[in-house]
Design a protein that fits this description.
heterodimer; A: alpha/beta; Rossmann fold; nine-stranded mixed beta sheet; 6 helices; 30% helix; 25% strand; B: four-stranded mixed beta sheet; globular; binds flavin-adenine dinucleotide
């Protein structure tokens, strides 16, 4: 089985300081890390590999970014990933999620046969959660987002638990497919020494625009229709209602409000 | 300070640091409070390939030496000296096999220790034989193809948790110090039991137990080196392992210093952070200087050991002596920097002081280290 994990190098937000004069992020000297959600994706790939047998399963990590992004790929190899591919080209610069999904999908096609693509649910620097689904759409394969458990996986078929606001859904899907994972799925391992030594000695395969069969108009800045109008934090969800007073009063109030809910639901 | 570590040593240090920060720091207080053995951390160590950094590649290790042992011990101790010693005491129990084991013994025991599957322990001390190791009363009687052990070892770190024990016992009492021998004994051997777990001041995550031998029969193949070499095995082992205790002390001191510096920038009195008071700055400066001096001596001795220097007793003793005294002083001063908060168990600093104390006692008290150093000095003078 071939598993591809898409990862992104992002600035360590714990490290970022705000310039008090300009109110902008001070990126200088900020450490780069693997997008935390992608760590769960790497770990899940490695666990599937352990489950299916190391000999028959290959985990390839893929990243689009500048040459420094090779460091992020190395980290995945030090945890146990087999191969690393870096998509790096000036032509890719300035990509929005649309162009990024397209480029990564083309890179994945270039790599040949694959069974499962795993992405983190979103990147902490953009928070869009669009690239995973975008890749699946471009490749025209099924996608399961917000996966919190791999229930079963075998040649051609997989079953996942997908988190929803109310609970979870169990989804069975043919392979190849793409999943995005949430942090509930696992606890990422630390790198091993032997992995680190291997990572140090490995080199990423580098893919540029000329290596791919792509429509040049869909790459980079010119392939990116997104225009950012404004960035803001959505309003926090308001907390629930707090009932106060003597216990019998509270119980009565609670009973009344449950009745209201039941009535309004049964009306609809 | 740059100690010109190799690329691989930096990798080892950074990985140990990561484990300390992400895995040990969050659980250190709980293991201390409840006196529980940190198996979950030993598992992380195993998965990260750190257990065998000082073991030859041929036997599944990384192929490093005392320096790697020190780097890992120091980084772990920075987060918890008690958890660190579970790793370092395994090294103490393993060194006799590395130094005196034959190929068969090495093949049999080292790979499982290197992979972290098994822990080891070293057993010399008895109720009546501490500094005076020559007074040990545990005996090993030869019977055909076997030895039969009788006696009680006291305060053995990793006792009960480890699978592999190197034990010093008397094979010939008449010969005195030349009548001791070293054996490898596996947990589960009939006649080999454990006494109660000790309640301690510090390093409370580590397990300290008695080993009880009652007509415990082991094959002749478990003798390390030759009969009569027991104390040579012990002394040569200590020469290699004492830099590890020094590294534990350096790590504990560094951890306490880290907390003290951080706290001094947060705590306000007289309308200012306490770090703005020169009286406190001078304390921090002295602490940092002492820690660095201890580290420099420890690393130098570790490097000396790794270059294969023949006689390292004096230097090894110096590193252990100096670093452990520094750890005691620096951790005491760290509490002073925190004032009353430092004295409270809600803050991590008092634990560093409790953990530091043991480094002045085990693997030879600091008085015994001074004896070793002085003896070597005088011998050197005699040789001219
Ligand atoms: C937590 C813990 C873990 C341990 N782990 C192990 C282990 O894994 N394996 C093992 O074999 N042992 C272990 N020990 C034992 C340890 O090595 C001994 O405690 C140590 O060697 C000192 O022996 P003692 O406690 O009997 O002290 P004593 O020898 O009774 O010493 C008492 C005091 O007298 C001083 N003194 C003794 N002789 C002299 C002298 N000639 N000149 C000057 N001063 C002297 C000592 O320095 C000390 O201050 C452990 C001990 C502890 C507390």
């Amino acid at each position: 089985m071939n598993i591809i994990v898409c990862i992104k190098q992002v600035p360590d937000t714990q490290d970022i300081r705000i310039n008090p004069e300009t109110n902008t992020l001070m990126r200088e000297g900020v450490q780069s890390i693997v997008n935390p959600f992608d760590m769960y994706a790497i770990e899940e790939a490695l666990r599937i590999k352990e489950r299916l047998g190391a000999a028959s399963t290959k985990v390839t990590v893929l990243s689009m970014g500048p040459s420094q992004a090779e460091e992020a790929l190395r980290e995945a190899v030090s945890m146990g990933a087999d191969e690393m591919v870096l998509m790096s080209d000036r032509a890719f610069a300035g990509s929005d999620t649309w162009a990024t999904s397209y480029t990564l999908a083309k890179g994945i096609q270039k790599l040949g046969k694959f069974d499962l693509i795993i992405c983190g649910k979103q990147a902490i620097d953009g928070d869009t959660a669009q690239v995973g689904p975008g890749i699946a759409a471009t490749l025209d394969i099924p996608q399961v987002t917000y996966v919190k458990k791999t229930e079963d996986i075998k040649e051609g078929l997989a079953k996942f638990e997908r988190m929803t606001e109310e609970g979870y859904e169990v989804i069975e899907t043919p392979l190849p497919c793409l999943i995005t994972v949430v942090k509930e799925i696992n606890i990422p391992r630390l790198p091993s020494l032997k992995g680190k030594i291997k990572a140090k000695q490995s080199k990423a395969t580098v893919l540029g625009a000329k290596d791919l069969e792509v429509d040049p108009d869909r790459l980079g800045l010119q392939g990116s229709p997104t225009a950012v109008k404004k960035i803001f934090t959505p309003p926090k969800r308001t907390g629930g209602q707090v009932l106060q007073g003597e216990v019998p009063d509270i119980v009565n109030k609670l009973a009344d409000s449950i009745k209201d809910v039941v009535i309004s639901v049964s009306k609809t | 300070m740059d100690y010109l570590l190799t690329e691989q040593q930096i990798m080892v240090r950074d990985l140990a640091r990561k484990i300390a920060k992400e895995k040990i720091t969050p659980v250190a207080a709980e293991h201390d409070e409840k006196e529980t053995f940190p198996w979950e951390i030993m598992k992380v160590m195993a998965e990260s390939d750190l257990c065998g950094v000082y073991i030859e590649e041929k036997y599944g290790g990384l192929g490093g030496g005392a320096m790697e042992l020190c780097l890992v011990t120091e980084e772990l101790s920075r987060a918890c000296g008690g958890i660190a010693i579970c790793f370092a005491a395994t090294a103490l129990g393993t060194y006799p096999i590395i130094l005196f084991g034959n190929d068969e013994q090495k093949q049999k025991y080292l790979p499982d220790i290197a992979s972290g599957k098994k822990l080891a322990a070293f057993a010399l001390t008895e109720a009546g034989a501490g500094s005076d190791a020559g007074a040990i009363a545990t005996t090993a009687r030869k019977e055909g193809d076997h030895y039969v052990l009788n006696g009680v070892k006291q305060w053995i770190t990793n006792g009960g948790e480890a699978e592999v024990y190197t034990v010093i016992a008397m094979t010939d009492r008449e010969k005195g110090a030349r009548g001791a021998s070293a054996f490898i004994i596996e947990k589960g051997t009939p006649g080999f039991d454990f006494g109660k777990k000790e309640k301690k001041l510090g390093i409370r995550a580590s397990a300290t137990r008695e080993l009880v031998f009652n007509e415990c029969k082991i094959p002749k193949a478990n003798l390390l080196g030759r009969e009569g070499m027991g104390f040579i095995v012990a002394m040569k082992t200590f020469d290699k392992s004492r830099p590890g205790v020094a590294a534990q002390a350096v790590g504990i001191a560094q951890g306490a210093l880290d907390h003290a510096v951080k706290y001094s920038r947060e705590r306000k009195q007289f309308g200012k952070t306490i770090s703005s008071f020169q009286g406190l700055q001078f304390m921090l400066a002295d602490m940092a200087t002492e820690v660095e001096a201890a580290r420099a001596l420890t690393y130098s001795v570790a490097k000396m050991v790794d270059t294969g220097a023949k006689d390292v007793s004096k230097e090894s003793a110096m590193a252990k002596l100096f670093a452990s005294d520094v750890a005691m002083k620096v951790t005491t001063d760290a509490i002073q920097v925190l004032g009353g908060y430092g004295y409270m168990r809600d803050y991590p600093v008092e634990k560093y002081m409790r953990d530091a104390k043991i480094t002045q006692i085990y693997e030879g008290t600091n008085q015994i280290q001074r004896n070793v150093i002085a003896l070597e000095l005088l011998k050197e003078q005699l040789r001219g």
